[in-house]
Amino acid sequence: MSVVLSIDEKVLVLNRGYAAIRVVPARDAFTLLCRKAAEILSIEDGNYMTYGLMDWMDVAKLQKEFEPEQHRWLRLPALEIAVPKIIRLLSYDKFVKPEVRLTRRNLFSRDKNKCQYCGTRFSASDLTLDHIIPRVQGGGNSWVNLVCACMKCNTRKGGRTPKQAKMRLIQKPIKPKHCVARKLRIGPSQYKSWKTFLNNAYWSIELEEG
User: Which among 24, 19, 20, 83 has a CA at the least distance from the CA of 53?
Assistant: First the structure.
């Protein structure tokens, strides 16, 4: 059996309408459960079962006896309790759409580490970020004005626009709809139940952890 030594195990949080809104550490999930602001959602034999914290504690003995490897465990003075995989808020309907952050890592991922002028793929250490409209000409930092460029192409372009430098972009830069750098990877078996509520093409771990 795997016993959690801290309470930082990740728990998926749904709103009242069963839409995924964030991922929180187990300590925050238990806080919500203690305040009776949430309930535990468990998928058992293909059926949805809901539990309050006290009910969940009551079934901990059976879980430990019959399915210990299916859970992460939190050791308390009087018992061991399974860390819930999913909780559902009882009075929160807002659907939160995560914003994709403008970072070097996300820009490299969007452009697949390819120079947007010569089309060659490079390691991150050999790539730079180029302002399509140079800063000296008033260009700013934005998804549509920043692209990956190799050092050679960036040097060749200099402080000019692609048109002025007689260079062409291989594709028009856009703002991604989801975080391409850190898609949520659901690997461990204890998180398989998350797949019911997550669309991997959309959601990412940047659904606000914590």
Answer: 83
d(CA 201, CA 179): 9
Phi–psi pair at 153, nearest 5 degrees? -70, -35
pLDDT in tens, 23-43: 888 888 989 998 999 998 987
Q: What pairing do the DSSP bridges indicate for beta strands 10-14 and 80-82?
A: unpaired
Token digits for 169?
A: 């972009």
Rounded to 10 deg, the angle between the 53-66 and 26-34 helix axes is 130
Domain segments of the chain: what residues?
A: 3-97+181-196, 104-165
Which residues 6+ apart lie within 8 Å of 127 measured at CB?
Answer: 108, 113, 115, 148, 149, 150
- CATH-assigned architecture of domain 104-165: Orthogonal Bundle (1.10)
Q: Which of 1-10, 159-168, 179-188, 200-209 has the lowest mean pLDDT?
A: 200-209
Cβ neighbours, 10 Å, residue 126 = 13
Identify the bridge partners of residue 44 per DSSP, sorted by sequence position: 47
CA dihedral 25, 31, 36, 41 (to 10 degrees): 20
Task: Write down the pTM of the prediction.
Answer: 0.49
